[in-house]
Amino acid sequence: MIKIIDLRDGRDSGIFEKLASRSQIEYGDVLRRVEDIVGNVKKEGNSAVIKYTEMFDKVSLKEEELKVTPEEIEEAYGKVDRNLLEAIRKARENIEKFHEKQKEKSWFSTEDDGVILGQLVRPIEVMGIYVPGGTAAYPSSVLMCAMPAKVAGVGKIIMATPPGEGGKVNPVILVTACEAGVEEIYKVGGAQGVAAMAFGTETIPKVDKIVGPGNIYVATAKRIVYGYCDIDMIAGPSEIMVVADDTAEPAFVAADLLSQAEHDELASSVLVTTSEDIAKSVKGEIEKQAERQPRKEMILKSLENYGAIIIVDNLDSAAEVVNRIAPEHLELCIEDPFSFLGSVKNAGAIFLGNYSTESLGDYIAGPNHVLPTSGTARFFSPLNVSDFIKKSSIISYTRKALEKVKDDVILFAESEGLKAHADAVRVRFEE
Questions:
Q1: β-strand 116-123 against 389-396: which pairing, if any?
Q2: Does the reported pTM lie above 0.85?
Q3: How far is residue 195 CA from its own chain's centroid?
Q4: DSSP tag of 108
Q5: What is the spatial distance between Cα 145 and Cα 87, in angstroms, rounded to a whole number?
Q6: pLDDT mean values, one per 10 residues, the chain (431 residues)
Q7: Among 78, 123, 173, 312, which has the minimal tally of Cβ within 10 Å of its Cβ?
Q8: What is the count of structural domains for the chain?
Q9: Do residues 164 and 245 touch, judged by C-beta distance below 8 A?
Q10: What is the three-class DSSP state of 331?
Q11: Is 369 annotated to bind ligand?
């Protein structure tokens, strides 16, 4: 069960090193196997995809069955609960509204002597979403991956997801993809699905970027194909940190810690509090609430291995812990959460106040839930519209403008030993 660690005595009991160790995965055999899969898909296309689908998903598909048909999508709509469909549409609207505010525009500026400088902003042409199957089939992730791309103006959005029993795709996933504007859906999962989108096959188009969650095989495949196309990030296990003072509600805090622990045995749920009473109360609530969770066994392993309740002297010390761990999700269950914001340097998404549960961010609030994990919030941002655009610099000089700087350009070029660069300027002013 989750342990209470008192940092007020100056000792951390190795908690920071233990949390960091979650992302230190030994790829070894996985890397070699995935390299083979990726290489074969690159070389053999559809035939390799079909072979691996039968091998790993136990589904035999013909080439013409790889792509989901309009009839299958129509059938899926008939299987999805109407209330869930309305929730999906409400979430889609909120996500779209939030990401609309992130859009960037091309710009130009005119300088002296007719110099024109600028930046051209263009969306990528084709984007691929990877969606896991089975128990990890999350329609919310489809929305979070597709909507910022749609807002950015990506030309075509496709999706790859493994087929289930009878060669069918999860109906909720199909419906969500359709609602989010995904144009083509393919029944292919795992490393072979990533490779198919990265290189293209006779049926599946080559994409410019792949986004979406997946297991270690998917993550490894994304590492391998990076460079042939772009990827979003290599996501690690999920994590939450709650900062609480004596105004926090222990039942709320416990529930939010449990919500992350049910993801994965490697998930991390950490409470940092200035109150010893809150620490003890939350621990008691966790033990009580865990008993009624269907994923109790997974939750308990997660909390035992990577959970912690950390007691600190004050909120300044709490901020130091936050910034050291750089959590994916950060909840501020304190009296004045807005005043604490200035102390937060590293966090993926920040939830302010006792009623801003992390679950809001996962589903319906609007900000993206594809977030940096394993301390990468120190240098990564949530998935956003900028991830689906590319920028070109614009430079236009007149003869008069070039003449003003020609000697400086020549000096730079010759200092670097690049005479042809210097001559490219000189030739424009020779008789």
A1: antiparallel
A2: yes
A3: 19
A4: E
A5: 17
A6: 86 78 70 96 98 95 96 97 97 98 97 92 98 82 98 98 92 97 97 98 98 92 96 90 98 97 92 97 96 94 94 96 96 97 97 97 97 94 97 96 96 98 97 81
A7: 78
A8: 3
A9: no
A10: strand
A11: no
Indicate if 356 and 264 belong to the same structural domain.
Answer: yes
CA 2 to chain centre: 27
Residues 356 and 418 in one domain: no
Which residue in 180, 230, 152 sits closest to 386, CA to CA? Answer: 152
The answer on whether 99 is annotated among ligand-binding residues is: no
Residue 337 and residue 288 share a domain: yes
Q: What is the pLDDT, as a whole number, of residue 48? A: 98
CA distances from 260 to 85, 257, 270, 321 (A): 25, 6, 10, 19
Q: Which residues contact 371 (CB under 8 A, 6 or more apart)?
A: 328, 329, 348, 349, 377, 382, 383
Strand partners, 390: 122
> Is the domain of 222 the same as that of 76?
yes
Same domain, 417 and 313: no
- pLDDT score, position 115: 96
Q: Does residue 75 fall inside a structural domain?
A: yes
Give the residue numbers annotated as catalytic, written as ranges. Answer: 328-329
238 is known to lie in a ligand binding site: yes
Residue 339 lies in a domain: yes
Owner of token pair 């009624």: 292
The β-bridge partners of 389 are 123
Please spell the DSSP secondary structure of 222-254, one letter per residue: HHHHBTTBEE-------EEEEEE-TTS-HHHHH
The DSSP H or E segment spanning 361 is: helix 358-363
Q: Which of 179, 177, 211 is nearest to 385 (CA)?
A: 211
Assess contact for 278 and 248: CB atoms under 8 A.
yes
CA distance 248 to 251: 9
Joined together, the tokens standing for residue 137 give: 């089939």
- Asked if residue 260 belongs to a known ligand binding site, the reply is yes
Strand order in the sheet with 268-273: 4-6, 308-311, 268-273, 239-244, 329-333, 349-352
One DSSP character per residue, 248-310 reads: S-HHHHHHHHHHHHTT-TT-EEEEEES-HHHHHHHHHHHHHHHTT-TTHHHHHHHHHHH-EEE
| Residue 64 annotated in ligand binding | no
Compute and round to an integer the Cα radius of gyration of the chain. Answer: 26
pLDDT on residue 136: 65
Which of 186, 215, 231 is the last residue in one of the domains?
231
215 is in an annotated binding site: yes
Return the closest-CA partner of residue 425 out of 393, 398, 402.
402
Out of 174, 196, 231, a domain closes at 231
Is 24 labelled a binding residue?
A: no
Q: Domain range for residue 418?
A: 398-429
